[in-house]
Specification:
About 40% of the residues lie in helices and about 20% in strands. It has a six-stranded mixed β-sheet with strand order 5-10-9-6-7-8, with helices on both faces. It has a four-stranded mixed β-sheet with strand order 2-1-4-3. β1 and β2 form a beta hairpin. The longest helix is centred in the N-terminal third of the chain and has 24 residues. The protein is globular. The N and C termini lie far apart (about 75 Å).
């Protein structure tokens, strides 16, 4: 019976490997305009740093999106009101608003391998840099708490009120988290996926002019 069990386990592993190989083989690749492209072209564009890879609109597909987006929102007062209520923090409406967004668990934030001491230092430097530039601290917003392991749990996270932040700025699940900086007139710069703190500072400078 033991040998039979081991044999069944081997067969299951082999079958899973075959299925995975077939899925990978039949992946389709799309550029930022949702036009099908070759795997090599997809990888070249992705590796340029200008684009981020996310799941496509259909099964077994991947697509590229620009990592940076600029735009504007029409009702910034509504955003201020909802964020103030969710975070219990008074929003300074004369300063740019910096939002750090956690989208939920993904391959980037589920391992918990980051050293908490290093993580605390990184976010402390991020906050200090933002405050030095615009005189306010970032607001930390999450879609759900999955993936908020010990290396980030010390941050003052607040639930996205009515999904407002996600709806306005982060329409896809961008792995590792993202940020947006919104000026008092409603224009914004968003960056999707893992980011260096220097990018947040640069966007803060742009929106404080």
């Amino acid at each position: 019976m033991k040998q039979l069990g081991e044999l069944l386990m081997i067969v299951c592993f082999l079958f899973a490997g075959i299925i995975n190989a077939q899925s990978t083989k039949h992946l389709r690749y799309f550029n930022q305009d949702n036009i099908k492209i070759s795997k090599s072209e997809f990888q070249t564009k992705r590796d340029s740093g200008e684009f981020l890879e996310i799941p496509g609109d259909s099964l077994n597909s991947l697509k590229l999106v620009f990592r940076e987006e600029e735009g504007s929102i029409t009702d910034i007062e509504d955003l201020y009101e909802k964020l103030a209520s969710a975070s219990e923090v008074e929003i300074n409406k004369t300063k740019p608003l910096v939002i750090i967004f956690h989208p939920g668990e993904d391959r980037c934030n589920s391992s918990g391998s980051t050293d908490i001491k290093s993580s605390k230092k990184w976010y402390a430097e991020l906050d200090q840099g933002v405050f030095k530039i615009i005189g306010t601290n970032p607001i930390y917003i999450y879609k759900n708490k999955s993936g908020l392991l010990k290396d980030k749990s010390f941050l003052p996270w607040n639930l996205d009120p009515d999904g407002t932040v996600e709806r306005l700025f982060f329409k896809n699940h961008y792995p590792c988290g993202s940020f947006t900086v919104i000026s008092p007139n409603g224009t914004y710069i968003s960056y999707f996926g893992e980011f260096p703190k220097e990018y947040v500072w640069a966007a803060s400078r742009l929106k404080s002019k």
